Amino acid sequence: MPRRIQRVWLVLACSLPCLHRFATGGFAFTSSKVPWRADRARLTVPLRAGKDEIIVRLPDGDIPEGVRKLRPGPEGPPSGPGEVDKVDVGRLPTYSELSDRLLSEYMLGSNQILPLRGILGGSPYSKTLRKQIRQNGKRSGSVLIFGEPGTEKDMLAFLIHYSRAKGSLYFVDCGGVSVQGARIFGRARSSGLLDLASEGTVVFNDVDKLNKALLPRVLQLAINGTYWSRAQKKEKQSKLKVILTAEQWSSVLQLLPKNKVVQIKVPALRVRRSDISSMVQYELRRLARGTGRPVPEVEPQALKRLQAYDFPNNVEELFFLIDNAYRNMEPGGSITADLLWTAQSVQKLDLFKVNLLEVYPGLRRFLQSDWLERLNHGFTKYAFPVFVILLFIGPQTFSQNFGLNLFWAWWWPGILLTYPILGRFWCAVCPFMIYGEVVQRWRVGQGAVLQKWPTKQLEEYGPWFLYLLFLAILLWEELWVLENTAYLSSWLLLLITFGAMVGSWFYERRVWCRYLCPIGGMNGLYALLALTEVRSQQGECKASCDTFHCYKGGPAEGEGQETNGCPLYSHPASLKDNKTLRWVPIYRDP
């Protein structure tokens, strides 16, 4: 074949792909001044200034930023695949402008509103956080801040940066970073944030939400300060201080060396309840300044409700509740508990409960008096032996013995009827443990040192002892007809009293009542039906109390009484139901 024909066929073969793209609209008609390339999915623009009018075919309607689509002419918009749109390029952004735009997307300036309220409160947790922020503001190493949602980890990162006062602050929301992370690490012939940011602090917020492919690269940046620049195709050293925040503690974050990445754990608000009062006052002062109104007062019950709430969203939820209560408050009024009705856990909703001690102040004064002490040791201690002797020496049948009739027909059904109303009130006036207290006080008066409870063994074997003893009493009662035999009923009372006295002889407080009393075990089950309950003020106990006098004993403080501590070794704040709660008199050393 002649050489001329070969050249013609070669030109035609090379032209076929170009003819195909021309037929499908793949080429752009442009001026010779500005090179353009348009394909079906995307229009790419060179990074240099220029102005021209071009006609391109964009089936997907993907017009880049900086290109303005003109209004269609009288003939209407394009309707078919062969139609075209007219676009006006205008002035294209320069490389410097694109770089500044990228930096501004992640930069947080001083003119922006940042939650820099600081760390409020005087609890040990708050003091530790403030100390950690000061220390990490002085050093250039990386920091990992982790904690539950709403603990304001980003605010702590801002405080660390501004305590350095060096460079700009860049904030990256890891949940919105693309799979490739091109805007952070760059791409071919296009620099990323790390390439452009010369000095300052970069915060990777919620790093646990970052793509798994990018997480090792961010951790490498935090550990060594190095990263792979895709634009320059080499490993570079960054001068940025890296701060990571995370809500989920993962095995990958656990591998961070503590000598290179300082770890700061932000405690949940339910752990630092004593700081709630300071936070509430701060937020109310801020809201009052913004509205020009006086700072409202916070009623004690409102503060106690906040301190008793667990705050799933922590500090952010607290400020949301305060803001909402302030907006709904009557002008010149105060923050009441009703305005904070949402600050209650679903499983502990107390909306329909009434605090009888607040409704009836006289009831509080009555319960704080020594009426139980006078009743038990001034009357019952002497009446109970008379009753036991009456069962021994009196007639032995139910119909003839007044004591037997009182025991089985009135006392036993009577305490059953008190359970739905008063719960375990019977334990407060129980005659069995009165003699246990008599023995215990005599032993202490003689200089004896009572033993601590073998709690582990009692927790393990105590329920079995209680169950078997109750079963033995039930069988004894039914098989020997105790309700019609007076002296056997008397022996039953003496048996339970003897158990209480033996326990009090060896051990301090009321070990018999807590673990071994069969009547007390039955009382606990029935008391679950009670309409009344005795509970601690959860918020006040967790936020304000640091003495634990109700548990360990101590002098009278506030509304409390001088006492040797809870006779049952139970902390009131840990009691959740009436099964574990006993009414017991508060007694002091003789």
Written account of the structure:
This protein is an alpha/beta fold and 590 residues long. The chain has four domains: 3-88, no CATH class; 102-265, P-loop containing nucleotide triphosphate hydrolases (Rossmann fold); 273-346, Helicase, Ruva Protein, domain 3 (Orthogonal Bundle); 365-529, no CATH class. It is built from 22 helices and 13 strands. The protein has helices spanning 3-23, 95-106, 124-138, 153-164, 182-185, 193-196, 215-224, 251-254, 276-291, 300-308, 314-328, 356-359, 361-368, 371-393, 402-422, 431-445, 455-479, 486-506, 511-516, 518-526, 538-543, 549-552; strands spanning 37-38, 43-44, 53-56, 68-69, 85-88, 107-108, 142-146, 168-173, 200-205, 226-229, 234-237, 240-246, 261-265. Helix 3 (124-138) crosses helix 4 (153-164), helix 9 (276-291) crosses helix 11 (314-328) and helix 16 packs parallel to helix 18 (486-506). The longest helix has 25 residues, at 455-479. The protein is elongated, with a radius of gyration of 40 Å. The termini are far apart. Mean pLDDT is 78; it is low at 19-90 and 586-590.
Features:
590 residues; alpha/beta; Rossmann fold; Helicase, Ruva Protein, domain 3; 4 domains; six-stranded mixed β-sheet; three-stranded antiparallel β-sheet; 22 helices; 45% helix; 9% strand; disordered C terminus
